[in-house]
Specification:
2 copies of one chain form a homodimer.
Chain A (H helix, E strand, L loop, with lengths): L10 H24 L6 H8 L3 H7 L5 H4 L5 H11 L6 H16 L3 H13 L1 H28 L14 H6 L3 H23 L6 H13 L8
Helix pairs in contact in A: 1-2, 1-7, 5-6, 5-8, 6-10, 7-8, 8-10, 10-11
The first copy, chain A, binds a DNA duplex through helix 1 and helix 3.
Chain lengths: 223, 223
DNA sequence: GACATACCTTGCATGCTATGCAAAGATGCA
DNA sequence: TGCATCTTTGCATAGCATGCAAGGTATGTC
């Protein structure tokens, strides 16, 4: 757990990680300074020290550089769900996996803060970010389903055997799907509510309150 | 309730609605036939009988034409939440508002089916669609909050007095926000689960089961 | 009905985004 | 070292997106 994304793999792979991270960071910093609309791919590439063509080897779209800060956060969360203690309920396992990921993001605090600032500044990017998060939830749903089937932690996080999207969706039951989607929603709602007034409450408290509300079945107005 | 989006307003407004609808429909049909990537703005515009420049007067982006079929569905849902009987709990009011909107979409059955087909064919568009739906949830959260404050149905759906996004988010409490987000999640999860195997269960049954699971607090595996 | 007003559409010019291709450079491995 | 593999890069090209100004179409007033 000490060195997750550090000296993993050979030189080639490390360089790729570095380049990707450099591009993403350059994009966010430039956007925070000048506004996302005024930042061209050329500027981002120059700041990261690569050619424009290389930028498009890493990102399909200019906006992706603003949206996808950490490309393999999804994989880490899936693994965390699978590795969680067997004693935890599905909802609890998800809560812990997400909390761990949020704690890790906290270490890149400044960058994530800029990211949030950039994304909230243009509705366009906000939509893309929300959508990207939701796409991750499909992976989480698979992990939850596997966990339930196995009755405990599982070994691998390798991509499912299903070939098409059709099959993959068909293989998922309603419950894991709903659980993953709701958990993702819980995170986003917590983040949004907290970031509206960061001084009013600790983020972790908001996060726990949201999960408590969910576990209670969203009872009518608590006022 | 009989003529919602029909002969509303003057000729000018009707023409704009018609043009927008024609563009959206042309986009979806062309994409369903040739694949979204192969459909140019020029083709869409030609099919709708307008110039390319006019296309961009209605949509900021080419992809928007594939994503936003019904531009003011969000406003209708907000109004429905505000107009719901005072006896309903917030969760119930949301459920009814969403169910009504889904029923209306059923009348454009073929178009929505094509839309789903197009969107699920390219992950890119799926992400955008998911994000767009989530953006609507902010409006729903406002409606829920207003409903709770008023203790019953309210009159207007006019935009809130808040100037900035910052203020608007600050004005929202945790509970309405969570409720709206979770309800939106419920709809998407229902649609996805049902559309994976449409023959296995009626959509409305899936929809109701999801809300039942939510109201029960997402208890551990029902198996 | 004629007029002024406001709005919508359109073509043109322009700059940026995005992809395929082939050559050159960097890495991994025997 | 030498070969195979992967990555980077420049170039060419097509499509996306916006500002601007000219012309056309509804709307309200006289």
């Amino acid at each position: 757990m000490s060195e997750k994304g550090a000296a993993q793999g050979g030189l080639r792979e490390r360089k790729k990680r570095a380049t990707r991270a450099a591009l993403a960071e350059a994009a966010v910093r430039l956007a925070a300074e000048h506004g996302a609309e005024k930042v061209t791919v050329e500027a981002i590439s120059a700041a990261a020290g690569v050619s424009v063509r290389t930028f498009f080897n890493y990102f399909d779209t200019r906006d992706d550089a603003f949206v996808v800060i950490d490309a393999d956060a999804g994989a880490r969360m899936r693994q965390a769900v699978l590795d969680a203690p067997a004693a935890l309920s599905p909802l609890q396992a998800l809560r812990e996996a997400l909390a761990a990921e949020l704690a890790e993001a906290e270490q890149q605090h400044e960058l994530w803060r800029l990211h949030a600032q950039v994304v909230h500044a243009s509705p366009h990017l906000l939509v893309r970010t929300l959508g990207a998060h939701m796409a991750d939830e499909t992976g989480l749903a698979e992990a939850v389903a596997a966990r339930i089937r196995a009755g405990g932690p599982t070994a691998s996080v390798s991509p499912p055997a299903c070939a098409t999207d059709e099959e993959r969706r068909g293989a998922l039951d309603l419950y894991p799907r709903l659980l993953a989607a709701v958990a993702g929603t819980a995170v986003r709602t917590s983040v949004e509510h907290w970031s509206a007034r960061p001084e009013e409450a600790a983020f972790l408290d908001v996060f726990q309150e949201v999960f408590a509300l969910l576990a209670a079945g969203l009872p009518a107005p608590p006022a």
